[in-house]
Amino acid sequence: MLRVNYYNMMSAPDLVGLPVSCLDALVAKGKTVHTALMAQQQAGDLYFVDILDQSPSERQHIQDLAAKVRGNYENLAILGIGGSSLGPIAVHQALNGPFYNERVLQGMVDGPRIFFLDNVDPDTLAIFAKTVDLTKTCFNVISKSGGTTETLAQMLWIIDQLKALNPDGWKDQLIITTDPDRGSFRSLVHSGNFASLPIPYPLGGRYTVLSAVGLLPAATVGLDIDGLLAGAKAMRERCTSADLRENPAYLLGALHYLADQHGHNIAVMMPYSDRLYGFAQWFGQLWAESLGKKFATTGEIVSTGQTPVSARGTTDQHSQVQLYAEGPHDKLISFLRLAEPSPALPITSDGLGEPGFQFLIGAEFGQLLNAEEQAIEFALRQFGCISYTLELQRLDAPTLGAMIYLYELATVFAGGLYGVNPLDQPGVELGKVLTFGLMGRSGYEEQKSAIQGYQTERQKSPYVME
Ligand code: PA5
């Protein structure tokens, strides 16, 4: 269902690519990483591998809740951020496609509309509350840690609105997806008796998409969650070899790692499919937070990471490709494309009497989309850019599940090659605690005075122009 073609990464007379020998030279190190990953998995630390085996009763619970939401509400709103939002968005976008909410309104699709509130921008929140009937909306609050400020703020605000609108039944409008035992959201579930779903503890936020985090929203908007899990399991079967030359996830991890080692420290993911743009953004978080690390697991300062960028074909050909072609060759471009984009949509026209229009008449949009992808792939090769292409036979739930697992495993394998921990994110902590300080949270007075001191200095600095 998936094929990786990395011809445009390996050196050739017309391309400054990676020497073929460098992949072979990484095989032994890859085997060491594999052994370490196996040990981590045995210890239960690579839980995105095990989450695929959730029991039929766990899946049934998700389906039952989804059916309840479908039967009782016009809208589902997801309150969550980072991995608690990007995964559900990627799945919904890929499998439901564009204009979904509009199609629900038109009666073309049966199911609730879905909204993702993944920020604390008052503009968005206020417009949402004015636009959507809150009494007909189910809120799925998602937080792995059960303490993320943005999600907490959204939840508190929504509960206040709901209490006013639906004093007797507001609690029924919430489903809280969080850690089964820890965190303040779990305490709330217990004390308030809210409907809830668990996110098993060892799963890090950005690896949760195939848990209840992604599955409840997906099932609610009518998607095939069994298919997603089956596809991921099929990819798990495909990715068992310790040899990176035989394991597609390890190969991808190794190609990205080697590209970075050779100066290509930007990873552009460029799907030629509007539906896969959310996947590219999900990958962006996975890659950035997992591999962008100051310290190696040995404690040595390494400052690793390849900066992920999402682009969209063909749209960004008219925005970014000039830079990719003639700017610094510091990028690895991964093209995602469908073997046969559907539906068959011909460009019907009489040509309006213009000879220059004729070449398009009778061609299909999918043919044009793929021709453009092939043209850009080749053109960028001519300019000396390296790239690989992930080709999908079709875009369905099993293929998407397989892609999710493929990149999750590629990420932890790359983490092993870099020698960093791909499961933590210590670099985001400082910003969090400084926010606590600024918002007056007790226990964060030191952070408050540190940031206030900085703000005063900044205010007085000569480097300001009006
Ligand atoms: O990968 C991670 O752990 C983070 O990016 C989280 O997804 C993000 O911070 C949201 O966290 P939580 O789900 O705990 O609210």
What report would you give on this structure?
By secondary structure, the chain is of the alpha/beta class. It folds into three domains: 2-41 and 229-418, Rossmann fold; 47-223, Rossmann fold; 426-459, no CATH class. Helices cover 48% and strands 12% of the residues. The strands form two sheets. Strands 1-10-9-7-8 form a five-stranded mixed beta sheet, with helices on both faces. It has a five-stranded parallel beta sheet with strand order 3-2-4-5-6, sandwiched between helices. Helix 2 packs across helix 16 and helix 11 (225-238) packs across helix 16 (397-418). It is globular and about 70 Å long. The model has no long low-confidence stretch (mean pLDDT 96). Bound molecules: 5-phosphoarabinonic acid. The site of 5-phosphoarabinonic acid (PA5) has 14 residues, from helix 5.
Write the SSE topology:
Layout: E1 2-5, H1 20-25, H2 27-42, H3 47-50, H4 56-72, E2 75-79, H5 83-96, H6 100-105, E3 113-117, H7 122-131, E4 137-143, H8 149-165, E5 174-178, H9 184-192, E6 195-198, H10 212-220, H11 225-238, H12 248-261, E7 266-271, H13 277-291, E8 307-310, H14 321-326, E9 331-338, H15 365-383, E10 386-392, H16 397-418, H17 429-438, H18 445-460
Parallel strand pairs: 2-3, 2-4, 4-5, 5-6, 7-8, 7-9, 9-10
Antiparallel strand pairs: 1-10
5-phosphoarabinonic acid is lined by residues 81-84, 143-145, 148, 151, 204-206, 289, 425.
